TrEMBL record:
It holds the Pfam family TPR_27. Residues 21-115 form the At2g35280-like TPR domain. Coiled coil: none annotated. This is At2g35280-like TPR domain-containing protein. InterPro entries: At1g67623-like (IPR040338), At2g35280_TPR_dom (IPR057136). PANTHER family: F-BOX PROTEIN, OS05G0482100 PROTEIN.
Amino acid sequence: MFKEVAESSNVHKCISLDEFPMAALHDMNGDARSFMDRCVASENLDALYMLGMVEYFSCDNLDTALTCLNKSARLGHVGAYYIITIILLLSGRDFKQKGVTLLSTMKSSREYREKVKYYREVLIKFLRLATTRNPKVLNGRPSCCSNARHRILETNGLSLVGNMDDSLFCDACTCDRELAYIFEGICSI
């Protein structure tokens, strides 16, 4: 009976994957891969989120990544929603504004601001450990804000940003700072 319960899709859907080694996900095989596949098939939010990150950042597979991340975000995973905004910001002109809007919406809520910080750290940790093959990440940090005055203020460094009035900056500046945190976090090993 215990084996039957353990193999139930409800168990795979609800099990926490906080300790699962996300960076090694694309190299898994055997029982570990089978377990993760069952979690994904059962719509486990963490499994979909993790697979989406691996598919985008390590495999440069946008279609599979967005399928997993969109499903996880639709089911309420804040980390998946955050990664989708980062993908949009990295994806260029047509998608960048949507990413700006989504991230600004997340950061306008105190509850989501804390979750953004948490998932940013998860992303940085993942990118430090994983093999990143996506050229949009490897080619460096894009810029979201096109206002020259804002860029001058930003060049004074992130340490000053915390002391500045946020009203000096637009939503795109907020996204530029978010991307700067990520890219600086990756480089500060």
